[in-house]
Amino acid sequence: MRLLVLGTGVMAKNQLRHFAHMDGVEVVGAVDTDPDRLKLFADEFGIEKRFLTLNDAIAWGDFDAATNVTPDRIHHPTTMALIAAGKHVLCEKPLAENYPKALEMTEAAEAAGVVNMVNLTYRNVAPLQRAREMVLAGELGTIKHVEASYLQSWLVSRAWGDWRTESTWLWRLSTGHGSNGVLGDVGIHILDFAAYGAATDIDHVFARLKTFNKAPGGQIGEYLLDANDSFTMSVDFANGALGVIHATRWATGHLNELKLRIYGERGSLEVIHRPNGSQLRGCLGENIESATWRDIEVAPVPTNYQRFAKAVMSGVQPDPNFRHAANLQKVIDLAMITERERRELKV
Predict the structure, then answer these.
(1) Shortest CA distance to 269 belongs to which of 124, 120, 137, 122?
(2) Where are the beta strands (DSSP E) in the chain?
(3) For a surface tag, which of 29, 111, 169, 197 has the fewest beta carbons within 10 Å of its beta carbon?
């Protein structure tokens, strides 16, 4: 697979640390509108072909697939151009700023017959994959209740950088710069974490969003800090279970933690993922009576990057595909409407 990298920021570097060491994968080109950033990136990873526009890269055309690591609002036009050129696409999340654009991308990719995949990073968490297997195997019985949270602290900690001075973080706080806040940024991750792990889809949603004051006048330079910082969401799942999902950037003491609890009539599971590792625990069988939780061993799983490369080489469409990500975007769009109208909506 000859791969083009579109966008050369922090996430692109993370991706290249995977792709650069895969058998059968050659990173042949990079695109960025910032020439200095492009040069630094391409020099670091030994990439010969460098383009300041996607149009120039497509005109060159000597690549099979692209990984789209541009800001959220750029995903739609750039992915549509890649699909029109017949290129396979791995797109960062969220697929688009809204459901209509995400659906347009989905239908275009399906019509073109190109491999399409969204980098929902936490599908790489092996305990999540194992939890889903156990749910599907009936080990928990009928699922009754689901809790999921995504906790970050970068608004109260400089561990990942200073959001007050760095554009890398500031744009994520401003709707005018293409951000839908914590709901649009990591909401798609925790929605997928919950629904995938519980092996069901979200059927109804009601959400509350909150934007806290972070600077005098709610603005830093050109950035109006109006995107949501926290959300809480109650959901009904298609299998009849009730769910509570929430996320925030104000979770002091939690750098980046995802947690999922799945409660069934015959047992329960807990998945925890933090930067230093992941864990699966269960309360099953006779342990239900004493409320004893035990660690469950989990085998490694292929990464999204490995599965995308395999899909391009084999021609077999992988999951999570564009349609799945578009459906999650629909939930996010409806969640924003429920905040404004204060009413539950059916997905």
Answers:
(1) 137
(2) 2-6, 26-31, 49-51, 65-68, 88-92, 116-119, 143-152, 202-210, 219-220, 223-224, 230-237, 242-248, 256-264, 267-274, 277-284, 294-295, 345-346
(3) 111
CATH code assigned at 28: 3.40.50.720
Do residue 174 and residue 299 come from a single domain? yes
Give the whole-angstrom CA distance, residue 271 versus residue 137: 17
Q: How is residue 158 written in tokens?
A: 């400089």
Q: What is the pLDDT of residues 220-260, one digit of tens each?
A: 999 999 999 999 999 999 999 999 999 999 999 999 999 99
The DSSP code for 216 is G
Gap between the terminal Cα atoms of the chain: 37
Do 193 and 54 have their domain in common? no
Q: Reduced to 3 states, what is the DSSP secondary structure of residue 347?
A: coil
Which pair of structure tokens corresponds to residue 195? Answer: 């629904």
Among candidate residues 226, 254, 228, the one with its CA nearest the CA of residue 156: 254
Q: What is the pLDDT of residues 78-106, one digit of tens each?
A: 999 999 999 999 999 999 999 999 999 99
> Last residue of some domain: 90, 121, 152?
121
**Contacts (Cβ under 8 Å, ≥6 apart) of 205:** 233, 234, 235, 236, 331, 334, 335, 338, 344, 345, 347
Q: Does residue 34 lie in a domain region?
A: yes
Quick one: tokens of 213? 């004051």
- The 3-class secondary structure across 217-267, one letter per residue, is HHEECCEECCCCCEEEEEEEECCCCEEEEEEECCCCCCCEEEEEEEEECCE
Strands 2-6 and 26-31: parallel
Q: Are residues 284 and 149 in the same domain?
A: yes
- Could you tell me the residue range of the domain that residue 117 belongs to? 2-121
Contact between 219 and 177 (Cβ < 8 Å): no
Token pair recorded at residue 259: 């947690």
pTM over 0.85: yes
